[in-house]
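SEQUENCE-TO-STRUCTURE ENTRY
===========================

Subject: a protein chain together with a token-level encoding of how that chain folds.

Sequence line: the amino acid chain in single-letter code, read from start to end.

Question of interest: how does this chain fold, as expressed in backbone structure tokens?
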Amino acid sequence: MLRIEKPIELTTEFEMSLIAPAEDIMFFDIETTGLSSWKSGLYLIGLLTYDDGWKIIQYFCEDVSDEPTVLENFFTLLSSKRVLISFNGDGFDIPFLSHMVEQYGLPYSFDNVESFDILKKIRPLKKLLNLENMKLKTCEKFLGIYREDMFSGGDLINVYFRWQEDRSKEKLECLLLHNFEDIENMPNVLPILNYIYALNGGFSLQSQELVKSPTENQQVLSLTLKTSVTMPVPLDIPLDNWFINLSGSALNLCANLYEGELKFFYPNYTDYYYLPMEDRAIHKSLAEFVDRSHRKKATAKTCYQKVSGLFLPEPEPVFSPVLYREYKDKLSYTKFSPELFDDEDLTETYLRSVIRQLKLKI
């Protein structure tokens, strides 16, 4: 077995404490000769751990006989950690190693450590970030992360077999580099999680203003909110009646306001009459004074009062009163005034209702 250790300086902008203290964390990635743990072998485990500084350690199998020793070294280090971070570890690395441990009859497991699979955490963002796929290298490219290694894990299987034949330094460096950069870049990919934290975290309103739409003769409400994290890359999110921009530590929400006439539908329509000539409903206590030929019993669809003004669209009713264009429309409105957002709780509730339109499972 070869053991390679190298100290590194983390440059990630992600706040690691959001996951756990540094000393409780271990990043890891494995390299194998195939996808099946029944038919394939393990030739490399790389890990990033904190011990008076961050360092990458790689355990390399020179031969299949090294597998138990590599597993023993890995699990010995893991026993002092609380969180194991990987990229698709739940889908591949952890099941592969668990089966190998079982095959060799070794007394190790992942039972006492929490798995933090970056891939599982960020998968809901694939469409939002317009990613071709969810491979580690694709995420690195989105974030502008450069890597020297140009091979995939599958490409290197034959390189490993050829290395066993000639033990060339160049092939060994190629094998180690791929795994090293996978490990080194994992912390640098974590900032993608900031989009999730920003869309799912707390917000504080910084400012609001009315602006004219650049494409339509329409007023737009612009809300600028501060988030608890920083976005790695600015992101625009268009919606039917809203537009979200995430940039730096700010979330900007633009809502297309509606100017005109809407309807406020009264509850308990059986208590109202509809006046066709006036196109409105009145309570039956007042309808007694209206000629019977000018009134009819209201229905749910005709039990309304018209309201004119400037209105804020709502995906779900948050503010009162709630108005609609027509009965049972999915989109509701409320009469706009800057004072709507004086209430921090209602402001956050409104923002979350807009974010839910993204249908992200976060």
